């Protein structure tokens, strides 16, 4: 994102975080009638030890530079968690905590072999822009046949919001969709100079759900955990979502869906794998 877009994002981020605070929880008296929820600008400025005009400029997206000390004070007043604090610093024009390498466009033969060794568990490798760079047969059969898509469409975010098959496979898609938007915003904030990422965000805004949730400015890193899944051949079952960073390439993550221990997920997955091999293709 360019400087103008960054300042606008910072302004919206601050307004959203200010609006979610309860004055009583901060210890402020409930004097006067409040036309909008949350703290007033004057209250944030007072608690942060800065001038109201200066803080107003930040919320207006003006070309001003906040010091790191001021940002630390704001993060405490606005009660930001660690992920939100990082986003605040990045949107204020400070470097990401770690240098962000350029997104890779391909993976090594060794990583491809690792994916294939995970069959029949679906797995893929993606970069920080959500581009799907490599996958195994189980991923093609169970999730999405990435190889059948043009390279420009092999993107996890695009398919989450625009792929009807993927939406049918995910019970509770809307809840997951809100979380996915928060994950995308976190990754986008850490990729300030990636113009391809900016173009991806523009494309995603063509989806009504994404366009409705994006302005809420929620940020959240992706995480492991349970993932409900549905497939027409075996019905619903539960996966454990595994996310592993590739040490040699920090911008890459390997993502796999593993059967949950103590359930019949492994048996169902083996049944599906056998069905796939009997069919002799990966296009279920």
From TrEMBL:
Record Pfam families: HTH_31, MLTR_LBD
Taxonomic superkingdom: Bacteria
SMART domains to which the protein is assigned, alphabetical: HTH_XRE
GO molecular function, one term: DNA binding
Domain annotation HTH cro/C1-type: ranges: 13-85
InterPro entries, sorted: Cro/C1-type_HTH (IPR001387), Lambda_DNA-bd_dom_sf (IPR010982), MLTR_LBD (IPR041413)
Gene3D superfamilies given in the database record: 3.30.450.180, lambda repressor-like DNA-binding domains (1.10.260.40)
Name of the featured protein: XRE family transcriptional regulator
